[in-house]
Task: inverse folding
């Protein structure tokens, strides 16, 4: 067996492991796990945003409440003053009108503040309900995620022996390949998942480029490392 044959066998062993790993990554449980992982990540970020929003609105409620209380106190004072002025014969009509304008303007502010407080409380109630709903959905998804993960772990365990065998096979075949040939193979692998291409009908099976007769001769006379001029794969006949 020539060195290129050994390298080809080495590639076969690598591809067998790739196939096994791809199978593990594409089981229904693994696909479900990935989907749930994405969903949970999104929910986490949504919940964190919701929480921040709720905290901010709670602070707003506190601030409006304080304003509201202060305005109400002020209003009561102005109203009492107005009552006194109204029954005071020494007050002019202009003074009474001015006092009325002041307490009426305050009343407007009190009403506005009350409405703002009410709207914010309604918003908070809804947001907290939303938060609870999202939280419960995320909790359900987390449970499903844990179940899918357990299935995936079991699947991996079932394939452990095959995986170990495939890895051992790679190591075993690697021993037979001269190190400079292996280094070249790894170099080509940086660009191509499958670095060695068979020559079929005088073409590189990697890129389907027709190969010159001189190149074909070089490959078939054996032992030489020849790369496809077009794609750079190692040619094997
Ligand atoms: Zn090629």
Result:
């Amino acid at each position: 067996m020539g060195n290129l044959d050994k390298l080809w066998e080495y590639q076969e062993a690598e591809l067998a492991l790739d196939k096994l790993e791809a199978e593990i990554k594409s089981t229904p449980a693994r696909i479900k796990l990935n989907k749930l992982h994405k969903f949970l990540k999104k929910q986490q970020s949504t919940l964190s945003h919701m929480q921040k929003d709720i905290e901010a609105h709670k602070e707003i409620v506190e601030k409006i409440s304080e304003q509201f209380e202060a305005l109400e106190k002020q209003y009561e004072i102005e109203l009492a003053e107005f009552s006194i002025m109204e029954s005071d014969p020494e007050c002019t009509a202009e003074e009474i009108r001015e006092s009325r304008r002041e307490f009426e303007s305050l009343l407007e502010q009190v009403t506005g503040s009350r409405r703002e407080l009410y709207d914010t409380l309604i918003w908070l109630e809804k947001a907290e309900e939303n938060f609870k709903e999202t939280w419960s959905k995320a909790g359900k998804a987390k449970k499903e995620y844990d179940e899918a993960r357990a299935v995936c772990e079991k699947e991996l365990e079932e394939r452990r022996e095959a995986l170990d065998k495939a890895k051992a096979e790679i190591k075993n075949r690697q021993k037979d390949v001269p190190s400079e040939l292996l280094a070249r193979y790894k170099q080509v692998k940086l660009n191509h998942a499958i670095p060695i291409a068979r020559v079929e009908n005088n073409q590189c099976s990697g890129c389907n480029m027709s190969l010159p007769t001189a190149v074909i001769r070089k490959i078939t006379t054996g032992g030489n490392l020849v790369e496809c001029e077009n794609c750079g794969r190692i040619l094997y006949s």
Remarks:
- The beta strands are 196-200, 203-204, 234-236.
